[in-house]
Amino acid sequence: MRILIRGGRPPHDTTSNEAAVGWRGTGSFATNIGNMLFADSVYRTLNVPGADLECDAHAPEWRQFTAAESADINENYDAYVLPMANAFRATFAEKNLPRMTALIENLTIPVVVVGVGAQMDLDGRNAQVSEAGRANTTAFVRAVLERSASIGVRGEMTRDLLVSFGLPGDRIDVIGCPSIYINSRDFAVTRKVDALGPDARLTMSLEGADNGKGDADTMTGLGDIWRANERSYADLTAVYQTLAGVELILWGEPAQGCPPGTPQTVHDAAYREDRLRTFTHPRTWREYLQDRDFVFGVRIHGNIAAVTAGTPAVMLSSDSRTKELADYHGIPQISLRTLVASGRYLAQDLYESADVDAMNRAMPQAWDRYHAFLERNGLQHIHQPGFANPDYDRQLAHLHLPPPIRPISAADPEGLATRIRWIRQGRWGDHHRPHGGYRPSFELDATDVKSPAGLVRGLRAETTAAQRKSEEQVAKLAAEVAQLRAEVEQLRSRGLGRS
């Protein structure tokens, strides 16, 4: 089965940190490294033996596809699977969803949406979507449901919102986020230490920048929480997920729009003391968190990365996009507003309240519902009998991946050399970069002659031209033969052809 998957890069891609961050000005992770987790999980789950999977490089959401390009997708793929996040929000619903809907309406293959969510207040009210966004969301879901049995959403809040839009509740499956199903059905998280002392290995999933979504306003008090723990724990690090935070760590660029009091420049103590991390591959992210004692913070995928690595985590919820997933999966949580009001900011207090057993109990049923959703929509997966793919697992295990990104001041000689080499070539213009630039296999636009689709199109054009030239030569030769035959017949009629 040939499947096109919404995602920046496949799990086996080993693109460098610099190339992954620099691509298109959004990064291969579409401005948020959390997007890597659910795309990676879906890709691996559907990669059964004999399957042919390709990532779409997020192209359908940032440019309009033509009817001819849609026809190429129909011809070259058997299904289009879209792992998604909080797409039903103002900016995405107004700008990106219409492009995706236009493409889907031209597709005749199955289209399956996995784990999409809305963005609302903590109590599930005041959806952050305009009237235009509501209409676009409804059109998108209807287009998907015309090509699939159901749509998979992150939680009950999103399901209730879509039902209020007039969409059929019996075709909306609550499945949570696919990123949490990267391990086995019986995977469980256990406490690594009884209590968190001053030398505890801690990581905070810290907001990098608002990226135009107004996060900085909802993150009031986050800086106080960071500073209190920074003073109390010698081994506290922060993981930044959004592009602005990633570029702060990689290039030293000031991270505009961060919540007040959080690290934003190379002058902050966290930068100078090597307390910041970010990643361009899910495996290195999970491996880093696997060695930590406890993770907490405001990023849902930062906490999911932790629990899938076997490390306890507490979600500091600020809106429905984080709360409904924490509710569904049983991830320990407290509202950021409640925590700020309590004044009890230290990790030890959060650690004591974390009920990992509830999360472990929730996993098997959620696991079953997720995989039943895939089967309802005709998708084979590696957890079905006879569909495991150990060869791909071995391939992933032997990958040489780029290391975690650390502040420039803490980079080792090799890491520093790759950054200098990248800058020496020029930070921008990846399409013209002599060495190391990221190039997705999916065709980005009609002028992308180097993509596989572009190469096929070029070969087809060459074949057509060669065939046309051959036909012309054959016709010319046939005309010459006919002329010769006519001349022979004339000679024979005159008796000159006998000897």
User: What is the helix fraction of residues, given as a range?
Assistant: 40-55%
Question: How confident overall, as mean pLDDT?
Answer: 91
Q: Biggest sheet: strands, sense, closure?
A: 6 strands, parallel
Overall structural class, as computed from helix and strand content, comes to: alpha/beta
Number of contiguous helices:
21
Number of strands: 12
Strand content: 5-15%
Distance between the termini: 69 Å
Task: Using the CA coordinates, give the radius of gyration.
Answer: 27 Å
Shape: elongated
Strand order of the largest sheet: 2-1-3-4-5-6
Instruction: List unreliable stretches of 5+ residues.
Output: none
Short description:
With 499 residues, the protein is α/β, with parallel strands linked by helices. 45% of the residues lie in helices and 10% in strands. Helix 14 links the parallel strand 10 and strand 11.
Task: Give a description of the structure.
This protein is 45% helix and 10% strand. It has 21 helices and twelve strands. Helix 6 runs parallel beside helix 7. The radius of gyration is 27 Å and the shape is elongated. The model has no long low-confidence stretch (mean pLDDT 91).
Topology:
Blueprint: E1 2-5, H1 17-22, H2 34-46, E2 52-55, H3 59-62, H4 67-76, E3 79-83, H5 90-95, H6 97-105, E4 111-116, H7 131-145, E5 151-153, H8 156-164, E6 172-174, E7 201-206, H9 215-218, H10 222-232, E8 235-240, H11 243-251, H12 269-272, E9 276-277, H13 282-290, E10 294-297, H14 300-308, E11 313-317, H15 320-329, E12 333-335, H16 336-342, H17 347-353, H18 356-376, H19 390-397, H20 413-425, H21 452-493
Parallel strand pairs: 1-2, 1-3, 3-4, 4-5, 5-6, 7-8, 7-10, 8-9, 10-11, 11-12
